[in-house]
Amino acid sequence: QVQLVESGGGLVQPGGSLSLSCAASGNIFTINLMGWYRQVPGKERELVATITNYGNTNYSDSVKGRFTISRDNGKNTVTLQMNRLRPEDTAVYCCKAYSAVVDSKGTVYEHNYWGQGTQVTVSS
User: Phi first, then psi: what are they for 112, rounded to 5°?
Assistant: First the structure.
């Protein structure tokens, strides 16, 4: 099992910045990838950014150049630095950890773990 605890978020004016952090605990050695997703009422959850154990990152087109995801493997945390925020960035942001374990027979056991979510509101 992996537990995720998020922090950060809140209310910010358009053009402002916020930082979200996600701390992982438990079977962290099984985590291959961590990331942030967001969801607004009535819409599907969408990917914001992900980062692998090797530091490879992926961003949605809507946040490229404005958001930066980073990972501190020593502290088992992932941080999403959000700059030049826009009203359309308003959403509940959730941290995800993707875990994959291969047994001696080559069977892969995959699991996605989610944090509780944190509200980000961009408004004047």
Answer: -105, 125
pLDDT digits (tens, 9 = 90+) for 12-55: 999 999 999 999 998 888 888 999 999 999 999 999 999 998 99
Instruction: In whole angstroms, give the CA distance from residue 62 to residue 41.
Output: 18
Q: In what order do the strands lie in the sheet with 77-82?
A: 2-8, 18-26, 77-82, 67-72
The DSSP code sequence of the chain is -EEEEEEE-EEE-TT--EEEEEEEEESGGGEEEEEEEEE-TTS--EEEEEEETT--EEE-TTTTTTEEEEEETTTTEEEEEE-S--GGG-EEEEEEEEEEEE-TT--EEEEEEE---EEEEE--
